[in-house]
Q: What sequence folds into this?
């Protein structure tokens, strides 16, 4: 069985949404991101991944895949019939990769990560300088579209949904970008998004960062 | 003809290396990253891409693809016979995506970007805190390997080569990680890496950041 290592409401939420969308059963392991311990067993998470970061998707053979941009494509490709990613070779597959990269570099690593992990206020402020431009790029793209790529929900939407859910706690109010607020509302109407968020919000209450 | 918008020695160098490896002819446009002007014509780069960032790969139909993680895969797939990326559907394709993501999030956006763009010293220091761990992960992976993915050169190596070339100017001495210093020497022996770096180092002398 596939196993997903996660921290509740971290970017591994996108991987959980993707897994729920596929309907493929998986085991979920809560990893404490500061202590790097697997909560259930107390085992050392460094032994699972030298990166010490989530998501980690572990295959039956014990190999681990990291990085949402890879993990999400892997999960989508398990069920090509569901079109959670454009097929390999379709031009839109590169659009999917483009958005996975933009969310992970500009929103996550460029803004959310420094906001939640940096301890220095000036450093947080530096990371904040570009976020309005970044968010505006996504909002403009979604002005006349229902989804990031093509005509249906893809794993890029799972990733962006997670990122948008964290922008509020990071001090960015989506009300300033109606296309984004609308998009997030639509995404939150998807049953598997609701389920994933409900599970992780409950779990989040049980652990201290 | 394909067109690549670049700034000399920015991460678009990886795209140039990949294009040279394919042997596909392209036009190269130098974009000034601060003024956002295309040097040759003085035209506004914002009109090409709302992100204002390189690389931008423009297709014959005028559509633009951004983000190295997507651009490099697109270029590799133009010449599947050269194996610059594992074929779609191969397990190693996800390894390629994993490394493209790691280089762009942890090395580029997590460290090189703040080092060269942040103006606040405390902010630069915050970005620096994790770079030794990050570089060590790559070094450990390359200890018993010649390339990042599989047995041959891929576009992930083009991307990492660029990142390693910039670590020195960013204050990280690769001499501390012999597998990485060796790897970079090997990569720099590739004719197309040499050619791309020689071209961009010359061009870099002609412009002020």
A:
């Amino acid at each position: 069985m596939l196993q997903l290592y996660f921290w509740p409401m971290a970017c591994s939420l996108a991987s959980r949404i993707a897994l729920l969308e596929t309907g493929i059963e998986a085991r979920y392991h809560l990893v404490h991101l500061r202590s790097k311990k697997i909560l259930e067993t107390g085992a050392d998470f460094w032994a699972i991944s030298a990166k010490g970061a989530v998501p980690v998707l572990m295959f039956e053979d014990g190999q681990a895949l990291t990085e949402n941009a890879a993990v999400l494509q892997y999960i989508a490709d398990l069920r090509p019939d569901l079109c959670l990613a454009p097929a390999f070779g379709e031009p839109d597959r590169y659009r999917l990769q483009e958005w996975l990269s933009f969310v992970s570099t500009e929103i996550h690593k460029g803004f959310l990560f420094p906001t939640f992990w940096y301890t220095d206020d000036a450093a947080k402020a530096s990371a904040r300088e570009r976020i309005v431009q970044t968010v505006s790029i996504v909002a403009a793209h979604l002005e006349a579209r229902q989804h990031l790529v093509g005509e249906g929900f893809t794993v890029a939407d799972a990733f962006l949904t997670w990122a948008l859910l964290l922008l509020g706690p990071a001090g960015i109010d989506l009300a300033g970008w109606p296309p984004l607020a609308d998009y997030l509302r639509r995404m939150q109407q998807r049953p598997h998004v609701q389920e994933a968020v409900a599970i992780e919000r409950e779990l989040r209450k049980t652990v201290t960062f």
The first helix of chain B runs from residue 12 to 22. Strands of chain B lie at 2-6, 26-32, 37-38, 56-58, 64-66. The CA atoms of residues 102 and 108 of chain B lie 9 Å apart.
